[in-house]
Specification:
single chain, alpha+beta, Beta-galactosidase, Chain A, domain 5, TIM Barrel, Immunoglobulin-like, 3 domains, ten-stranded antiparallel beta sheet, eight-stranded parallel β-barrel, 36 strands, 19% helix, disordered N terminus, binds alpha-D-galactopyranose
């Protein structure tokens, strides 16, 4: 859209057209708009991000009085402001002064790509700002490409993927924090003056602690189902940094990108540097609305096989830990098959010939079957799986090595370590990280998977673990002057490797595990089908962790397993019903020794698995509506999934504390069709008498404005009473 370029006019000329913008770019999704001014020779300007604008409103933006902010602040000229990019030129000059060189929007097969090319006024350096939409998705991905056209090497000191100004106001930040076994905790706080920084420096995993995804609620304290929300997810698997700068002006400034700490990046003449995408969404339906946008985009575009249903599995870890043997594996397969499960995953402990893997201090790197444990090898396990009618999956941790391993004996030069120093050891006192920057290591990691899948094409599932951070800044592969590339080069190498694996094995299911939830990010999900939410399988703590994780990730990607009581991490004794009800709100699996379960418990799981198969399409592909946050301390948490056609929904309710005569809130449902009648069926019912509304029908309108009364405890025989209560209600439209 070309417009006459006029300077800002004063009030007395108010009747004249006041448009300032000469080249307006409207990046539009079905429900959102991003508007940019990219007039050649001028600074590129950010004009608007939010609810979808009509052409008329886009044209009138210049008259709205809103400031036009720098679209991508570069460091150097007026350096007192926070910048999104900083560079040292070949001649030592530390400034950038970027103006628009070109702008274009291209149609892609499944969306659009708008590129604004900025060029330095003096130096032959280009920065391309990319904005990509996908048809039907309310998400815009933005990333940059910096091209060094200088005669010598330039050094990038900062390289954000995106920058977004957000109008100053009662803006709240919702972010995730945590620790191992306590991932995905929600924190909410208003953005106050000064700088808020969220960053990660693990090197390998990036979501145990803070996450690289956030929500900004623009209308005060975050609400689940109302209010304007901007969501942002940096799609990167490595170290990241998110900055929120609230200065003295009218805007909060949000920057997101690769963490620049100790990571200066040198670009040789003619080379370019591409940043990972920052995905932005906007919703006027609260946090849950922004989550639905992320989930749909995730399933359709960013998660391997995101539109396909996941199998119900049993994983061996908490059942047997390292005690792997043929008989035990066969028995577990028989058990999961008898309960209706579809897949068995053999976890850690199956490999190592010279050094058998009996605990966590040996064998990583030696991916050959330990025949003393498994005399018939993987072939024998696949035969067992076939006999029991389930699929078979296997655990690997291919980016890692133990010092006690044949691999380390042969290739000590493959590990990450600082020159002239001994490597730091992690898990088991012997674990090190392989240097994914090294193409030979990339081949090695590729070959771990390739060998397994070539020899045993029936392997249906891989659990890919990563149990160590980068513990020494040092690559034995990168040259001395490129040591600062390590963190990024690791993830480039990782991406190249998994890309190769996916090209050859597009169908295998791959789980991203990293000491639990260390790889819950959209940087890995294009190659991975799901992630392990946490090594903590305690159902109560999972209510909190899965709540936070669901802000950004759909249930189809969130592995959630029924485990033993007392729980192996928290030692809480939570009844099987509650454990099943929680696991059934994600990608259901089991992580337990079935041999230790009673027949009654197995029968309960059989019923739960059968019910899950019925609701699986709605849980894994439906729209989330979070209703009552466990973080609000109301004694209860509740959420629901609704099928896109609103024919069906599943409602979950969990008590989070237990006091006698506690007043619990009545939960209003959401997302239903107000004009349709929904029949209620309770799943995993344990009560002696049905709920009053069992089999009864209510309008969506009634359910959304009133909800149903959920009893605070279960009506069971005295000896079965306990301090927990949970419910799953299935709603089917008539
Ligand atoms: C990590 C994973 C667990 C399990 C163990 C095996 O901790 O998160 O699920 O696979 O490794 O050693």
């Amino acid at each position: 859209m070309k417009k006459a370029y006029l300077f800002m006019l004063s009030g007395c000329f108010a009747s004249l057209p006041m448009t300032m913008w000469a080249e307006t770019l409207h990046v539009a999704t079905p429900g959102t708009s991003l508007v940019i001014d990219a007039s050649k020779g001028d600074k590129a300007k950010f004009l608007y991000y939010g609810e979808k604008l009509s052409d008329a409103d886009v044209s009138a933006l210049g008259d709205s009085g809103a400031a036009a902010l720098d679209l991508f602040p570069a460091y150097g000229v007026n350096p007192e402001h926070e910048a999104a990019v900083a560079m040292t030129h070949a001649d030592g000059n530390m400034t950038l002064d970027m103006v628009v060189e070109a702008a274009e929007t291209k149609r892609l097969p499944d969306g659009t790509l708008t590129t604004v090319t900025l060029r330095d006024k003096v130096y032959p350096v280009d920065i391309k700002l990319n904005y990509r939409t996908y048809d039907g998705e309310d998400v815009i991905e933005t990333w940059t490409e910096t091209i060094n056209g200088e005669k010598g090497e330039v050094t990038l000191r900062r390289f954000d993927s995106g920058y977004l100004p957000v109008r100053y106001g009662d803006v709240w930040l919702s972010s995730l924090y945590g620790a191992w076994a306590n991932e995905g905790r929600v924190e909410e706080a208003p953005l106050t003056h000064g700088m808020k920084v969220i960053k990660n420096k693990d090197g390998v995993r990036n979501s145990h602690t803070a996450h690289s995804e956030v929500m900004l609620s623009l209308d005060g304290k975050p609400q689940e189902n109302e209010g304007r929300v901007i969501g942002a997810a940096l799609c990167y698997s490595g170290n990241y940094e998110l900055r929120f700068d609230t200065d003295y002006g009218d805007y909060h400034h949000f920057f997101a990108g690769i963490n620049p700490d100790d990571s200066e990046y040198k670009l040789a003449k003619g080379e370019s540097f591409v940043t990972p995408p920052l995905a932005l969404t906007y919703s006027e339906e609260g946090l849950s609305g922004a989550s639905r946008n992320f989930h749909k985009w995730g399933r359709n575009r960013k998660i391997a096989h995101g539109n396909e249903e996941r199998k119900i599995l049993l994983n061996s870890w908490e059942g047997v830990y390292f005690d792997i043997n043929e008989e035990g594996m066969d028995a577990m397969m028989a058990d999961i098959a008898s309960m209706g499960g579809e897949l068995f995953v053999m976890d850690d402990g199956w490999f190592g010939v010279k050094y058998p893997r009996n605990n966590d201090s040996t064998s990583l790197g030696d991916w050959s079957v330990d025949k003393t444990k498994l005399p018939s090898g993987i072939k024998g396990l696949l035969d067992s799986a076939k006999k029991h009618g389930v699929k078979f999956g296997i655990w690997i941790e291919p980016e890692m090595v133990n010092s006690i391993s044949e691999l380390y004996e042969k290739h000590p030069e493959y590990v990450i370590k600082a020159a002239k120093r001994e490597p730091t050891m992690g898990r088991g006192g012997t674990q090190m990280v392989l240097d994914m920057a090294n193409p030979k290591v990339q081949d090695l990691v590729f070959n771990v998977v390739d060998t397994l899948l070539t020899n045993y094409p029936e392997i249906d599932y891989i659990k890919w673990d990563a149990n160590a951070p980068i513990m020494d800044h040092g690559s034995q592969y990168l040259s001395a002057d490129k040591q600062s590339h390590l963190y990024h080069a690791y993830h480039e190498g990782f991406a190249k490797t998994v890309d190769r694996i996916r090209a050859k094995y597009p169908d295998v299911t791959i789980q991203a595990c990293a000491s639990g939830g260390g790889r819950a990010n959209y940087g890995v999900l294009p190659w991975f089908d799901e992630f392990w939410v946490s090594d903590n399988t305690d159902a109560l703590q999972r209510v909190y962790m899965q709540w936070g994780t669901s802000y950004f990730f759909p249930a189809v990607a969130m592995a959630s397993h029924i485990s033993a009581a007392p729980n192996h991490q928290t030692f809480l004794t939570i009844p099987l019903k509650y454990r099943a009800d929680v696991a059934m709100s994600g990608r259901l699996g089991m992580e337990i020794q079935p041999k230790n379960m009673t027949e009654e418990e197995k029968e309960f799981c059989r019923r739960a698995i059968a019910s899950y198969k019925e609701i699986r399409p709605v849980v894994q592909q439906g729209d989330i509506y979070r209703l009552q946050s466990p973080y609000d301390d109301k004694g209860v948490a509740s959420l629901m999934y609704v099928a896109p056609d609103k024919n069906e929904a599943v409602f979950y309710w969990y008590k989070t504390e237990s006091f006698v005569n506690q007043q619990l809130p009545r939960i209003k449902m959401a997302g239903l069709d107000p004009d349709r009648m929904y029949t209620v069926t309770e799943l995993n019912c344990i009560d002696n008498k049905p709920l009053p509304y069992e089999g009864k029908s209510f309008s969506g309108r009634y359910l959304m404005s009133n909800g149903l009364e959920i009893p605070a405890s279960h009506s069971v025989d005295y000896h079965k009473q306990n301090d927990w209560a949970s419910r799953i209600l299935r709603l089917q439209a008539k």
